[in-house]
Design brief:
By secondary structure, the chain is an alpha+beta fold. The protein contains 22 helices and twelve strands. The protein has helices at about 1-25, 30-55, 60-85, 90-120, 130-150, 160-185, 190-205, 205-215, 225-255, 260-280, 280-295, 305-315, 325-335, 370-380, 385-390, 405, 440-505, 505-530, 545-555, 580-595, 625-635, 650-660; strands spanning about 340-345, 350-355, 385, 410-420, 420-430, 540-545, 565, 575, 605-610, 615-620, 665-670, 675-680. This is histidine kinase.
């Protein structure tokens, strides 16, 4: 039953590969890949037929079947190498990879064939059966490594049909790998693997046929990255390591006697731990990447990868880690280092330490702006290698390095950071994981990245300065409003003091003085409360009778020239507002109208109502304002026409409060004719209009002037 199954499976494989060879030979022989695939299909068909013949007639012998299997494996690896050869006619790196992989394959096949010929023809057994199995496993690992390399670069190939050939060849190689690994462990090839081998070989033929049909145009564009080569090398090393581990474990068990099993377990455990240590070592990875860059690539860096990595790190808007630390890690990563120090120019022009990564900070860290190093770097954009400097200071013109740098024992490279043409900072990079041979390419990339990161550092510093300036501006703005209110109180109290000597015997003046002082104390108390806890948008409001409030304000300003004349509304008009703030707003408008009008002029106030709105018109026959002044300066804070005596916030504060309670202030004016301020306020609902006390107002201070 086993023999019949073997015959059926390998007969099917022989027929399938023969048909595939006919398909390829009939139409598609333009490329090296097509020709190599034709050869692989023919060899596989002959190999499958030899297994059928051996099962039926016991011929051919082991050596010929072994030879055919070696050629079959080598032919499929040649298909993968042909893919590289067609796409690498102009790349030095691609040529090196192709030659290395080709040499490894040819060398291994020749060695295995030579050993087999010597044993078959002359009886010289150089290698035993287990070594032959190890050779087969090595061939399958080489094939899988090539497939993994091609698959990893699948996105850059631009040929979706290439996945079929990858899946097909990897299936053949993976099946042989598991079959021979099982044979290496148990001493013989399992019947289940052997009988199913023909079916597996025939199963992938349709995928190969699809690949042949779909790849009829120009050769694919293939490109390998350093990361791909690193992963292929790591995968190959891992496979070889596991093979050696299995062989070593077997011999330890055989030669260990009674302790064989225990020694085998100990050997395998220690070997696995050592392998994990190698796989996780950043130092080993750095050395391997440097070796790959130096021996397989024209350029040391994959610039696309380096730029994308830097962009991802700098685009992170979080503060973990902070930007200076990220800059150090970016620059250090270019030369396989994970430590560094960053200095930036401070307000005094010196260079202050910002942060240190994986380096102990000495006591003194500031670099003087007048130091010889700073003058040297301001003249020329040099990267200083401290190892070279210690060996040959003359190379750097006997430059004196500040103690703030030399105190870092692991310091290696001093990188200047320029903002435009000015030196903005310094970065000291620590000793790398592996020895890095620096050349023009390293220095050029470091300089470019240093300038880019320096721009980000300068932008971050400017943002911090702007934020602090905005905070100071907010404080200044709040202080200006407070000073404006204090000036009003000071003016009232000053008038009382100036008139006290003339009216101190007048009881009415004494009453006005008490009321004015009481009002000033209350207003200053509210101002102190506002400083301690700023009032938010939920200020307490109440219904205020505009007729009554404006009448009181006109009485208060009667001593001013010209005296304001008020024409009230025929009925009470109530608005929902804070009485003190509304009094301050309207009082400011009346005072401004008097200040802008000559004594012989007129200031009139008229209150009207219409459709739920109250409109108070404050008119004067003063100097007037231009349209440009009204549009761009009148309501702009800190813009005053009164010189040093004005704060420039009265009109702005008035309009902001009126808008806050749902109204607005409009202005019409003409130079030499006068101005009219229209204050529109929403009228409060009739059922809630409970007016405040008529005499809860600012005292008139009739005798204050």
């Amino acid at each position: 039953m086993v023999t019949n199954l073997t015959v059926i499976s390998h007969s099917l494989a022989a027929l399938a590969y023969l048909l595939l060879a006919i398909l390829i030979a009939g139409k598609y022989l333009r490329r090296d890949v097509d020709r190599s695939m034709l050869l692989a299909a023919l060899v596989t068909s002959v190999w499958s037929f030899s297994l059928v013949s051996q099962a039926l007639w016991s011929e051919p012998g082991f050596f010929l079947r072994y030879l055919l299997e070696l050629v079959r494996d080598a032919s499929w690896i040649a298909v993968l190498l042909a893919l590289l050869r067609d796409a690498s006619r102009t790349g030095q790196f691609m040529g090196k990879v192709r030659h290395a992989l080709s040499a490894a394959t040819i060398t291994l096949v020749i060695l295995l064939i030579t050993f087999g010929v010597l044993e078959y023809a002359f009886g010289i057994a150089i290698v035993d059966g287990k070594t032959k199995v190890v050779g087969q496993i090595a061939l399958t690992l080489l094939g899988l490594s090539l497939v993994e390399q091609i698959w990893r670069n699948f996105g850059s190939m631009g040929r979706s049909s290439l996945k079929y050939i990858c899946i097909s060849i990897s299936t053949l190689m993976a099946f042989d790998f598991f079959m021979y690994s099982d044979a290496l462990l148990f001493g013989q090839i399992a019947d289940s693997f052997w009988d199913a081998r023909g079916f597996v070989s025939a199963l992938v033929v349709p995928l190969l046929a699809v690949n042949v049909v779909n790849t009829r145009k120009q050769p694919i564009e293939f490109q390998l990255s350093r990361t791909a080569v690193y992963h292929v090398g790591a995968l190959t090393f891992a496979g070889l390591y596991l093979i050696l581990l299995a062989i070593g474990g077997y011999y330890v068990k055989v030669m260990g006697g009674n302790w064989g099993n225990a020694l085998q377990v100990l050997f395998v455990t220690g070997s696995i731990a050592f392998f994990v240590l190698l796989a996780t070592s950043q130092r080993i990875r750095a050395r391997l990447m440097i070796f790959i860059s130096q021996n397989f690539f024209d350029y040391k860096y994959d610039y696309r990868e380096e730029w994308l990595k830097m962009t991802r790190q700098l685009a992170d808007l979080s503060d973990s880690p902070p930007l200076p630390e990220r800059v150090i890690r970016i620059l250090g990563g270019l030369v396989e280092s994970n430590s560094g120090v960053l200095w930036l120019r401070d307000e005094d022009g010196n260079f202050a330490l910002q942060t240190a990564v994986n380096m102990a900070t000495p006591k003194y860290t500031t670099i003087d702006s007048q130091s010889e190093l700073i003058r040297f770097l301001q003249e020329r954009e040099w990267i200083i290698n401290l190892e070279e400097y210690r060996q040959d200071p003359v190379r750097y013109n006997l430059l004196e390095i500040p103690d703030a740098i030399t105190k870092f024992r692991d310091g290696w490279l001093v990188i200047p950071m320029y903002l435009g043409n000015d030196l903005y900072g310094l970065t000291l990079i620590g000793t790398p994981y592996a020895k890095v041979e620096l050349n023009w390419e390293n220095f050029d990339l470091i300089k470019v990245v240093a300038r880019q990161t320096c721009n980000l550092l300068a932008q971050d510093d400017a943002q911090s300065r702007l934020s602090r300036a905005m905070q100071f501006e907010a404080v200044s703005k709040a202080s200006a409003f407070m000073v404006h209110d204090l000036k009003t109180l000071i003016a009232q109290l000053t008038l009382l003091v100036n008139n006290a000597s003339r009216h101190k015997s007048n009881p009415a003046f004494i009453d006005d003085m008490i009321l004015t002082t009481e009002h000033a104390v209350g207003k200053m108390s509210r101002l102190v409360d506002h400083i301690r806890k700023p009032i938010d948008d939920s200020d307490e409001t109440g219904c205020v009778d505009l007729n009554c409030l404006v009448t009181q304000l006109c009485e208060q300003h009667q001593k001013g020239q010209p005296s304001p004349q008020f024409k009230p509304a025929p009925a009470p008009v109530f608005v929902d507002a804070d009485q003190e703030q509304l009094r301050s707003v309207l009082g400011h408008l009346i005072q401004n109208a008097q200040d802008a009008t000559r004594p012989e002029g007129e200031v009139s106030l008229t209150l009207k109502t219409s459709e739920g709105q109250a409109a108070l018109f404050v008119q004067d026959t003063g100097s007037g304002m231009t349209e440009e002044f009204i549009k761009f300066q009148l309501f702009k804070p800190f813009e005053s026409t009164k010189g040093l005596t004005g704060m420039g916030i009265g009109a702005y504060q008035a309009r902001e409060y009126v808008r806050k309670i749902g109204g607005n202030i409009d202005v019409t004016s003409e130079p030499g004719v006068g101005s009219c301020f229209s204050v529109r306020l929403p009228i409060a609902m009739a059922d809630t209009a409970t007016p405040r006390g008529k005499y809860d107002a600012e005292p008139p201070a009739r005798h204050a002037k």
